[in-house]
Amino acid sequence: MNSEETLEESPLLEVNDLVVTYQAQRGSLMKRTEYVHAVKGVSFKVQKGTTMGLVGESGSGKSTIGKAILRLAPMGGGSIHYDGQEISTLSDAAFMPYRKQIQTIFQDPYASMNPRLTIASIVAEPLLVHAPEMSKEERTNRVADLLEKVGLPADSMNRYPHQFSGGQRQRICIARALSSSPEFIICDECVSALDVSVQAQIVNLLQDIQDELGITYLFIAHDLAVVEHICDDALVMELGEIVEQGPIDELYRSPQHPYTQRLLNAVPRMPTILGAG
Ligand SMILES: Nc1ncnc2c1ncn2[C@@H]1O[C@H](COP(=O)(O)OP(=O)(O)O)[C@@H](O)[C@H]1O
Ligand SMILES: [Mg+2]
After folding, report:
1. Can you tell me which atom of ligand 1 is nearest the CA of 237?
2. Do the bridges between strand 13-26 and strand 32-46 make them parallel or antiparallel, or are there none, so unpaired?
């Protein structure tokens, strides 16, 4: 292997042996501590400019992995390298630049928006934190550019979240996520609540944005059909562990793990190419 090859292979995100255990207090009279082993030693790499799918049933630990990357989950072991830097042990101040680079889009856009703020204020929120030097006029121009990029009319700026459809609100969230010019976006079930036709539009939008800006995605979903269209590779999670990973077309063509086969079988339009294992 020559050094050029090694350089090319260095991933944007590298997670090694990640362990997350939640502690919860249960019981009203006899208090006891319960441990939820949400992520049990997970390792994977995401190359720059690609989309990594993270699929699995509800409760399998997908969101917890996203939260751990953003230091919002109690990490019990392992490491998270971003662009070669271990980020899980950084001080809050040292992590600040990474908060600008790593953005998230969630399933329920309405829940993540203040209903009393205009779209202009919502999209500009990250700019106030990450680019405080920007003038009001620069911010307004930036917001207008972002709204255009995500396919919303310019007059959206002075309107409020309730005046938009679910798909349009997700576009607003994408604009907000893009406002700080991130390199990496965690899309946590970001199309799961939308109608199939709207899902396709948002997935296409995310893909166009990736083509234009080279953004890297971690795309979390329980729906394999969505993942197939946007992902280069995928991780299949079951009960806190990765049971299978690989290029998306290989996973589709010859799923090795029974759990992956079950998930694929749950996709209605899949031809029955799977063995009877
Ligand atoms: N804050 C928390 N406290 C205790 N348990 C949690 C917390 N968040 C998630 N869990 C548990 O961790 C497991 C994984 O959850 P999650 O990562 O949200 O799964 P997914 O996103 O795949 O649905 C589940 O059993 C869930 O109930
Ligand atoms: Mg989740």
Report:
1. 22
2. antiparallel
Rounded Cα distance between 19 and 143, Å, is: 38
Q: What is the spatial distance between Cα 134 and Cα 103, in angstroms, rounded to a whole number? A: 20
* Residue 67 near ligand 1, beta carbon < 6 Å: no
Cα gap 62→55, rounded to integer Å = 7
Spacing, Cα 135 to ligand 1 middle (Å): 41
- Phi, psi values for residue 40, rounded to 5°: -115, 60
Give the C-alpha separation, 226 to 231, whole Å.
9
CB atoms within 5 A of ion ligand 2 belong to 63
238: number of Cβ within 10 Å:
20
Residue-range domains of the chain with CATH: 11-110+184-265 (3.40.50.300)
pTM over 0.85: yes
- Within 8 A by CB and 6+ apart from 228, the residues are 248, 252
Q: What is the pLDDT of residues 180-233, one digit of tens each?
A: 999 999 999 999 989 988 999 999 999 999 999 999 999 999 878 888 889 999
